[in-house]
Specification:
Layout lengths: L5 E4 L6 E4 L1 H9 L10 H15 L3 E4 L6 E4 L12 H14 L9
This protein binds zinc ion (ZN) (2 copies).
């Protein structure tokens, strides 16, 4: 059976796109029953977005020692970011600064 180019409408941007005969053959060979819902542009955009979501790695400079490090989140503006070594120290300091329940200072 011969395929011919089909024009489909993209679910994402509502623009018509061509589902080529070659792609249809590919789908048939893989026994894929769903026709593509998105144009190639939206498909690659989507892939990019999903990739970013999976790995939100941001390169930052540690506010304590100045080393460049990566963190698994996007730091907010103005918020100091520490490397894992300094972060451990900062956490200990914060613990120490917290008034103890007993109030036995001085
Ligand atoms: Zn599209
Ligand atoms: Zn550091």
């Amino acid at each position: 059976m011969e395929f011919s180019d089909k024009t489909l409408t993209c679910r994402e941007c509502s623009k018509p796109f061509v589902w080529t005969a070659g792609e249809q053959t590919f789908y048939k060979e893989r026994e894929l029953i769903n026709v593509p819902a998105r144009c190639t542009e939206c498909r690659s955009n989507r892939k990019e977005r999903l990739g970013l979501q999976r790995q939100p790695i941001t390169e930052v400079v540690c506010a304590e020692c100045g080393l460049t490090t990566t963190v698994p989140f996007v730091p907010r503006n103005g918020k100091p970011v520490y490397c894992s070594t300094c972060l451990a120290g900062v956490r200990v300091q914060e613990e120490a600064r917290r008034p103890s329940a007993a109030g036995a200072s001085v």
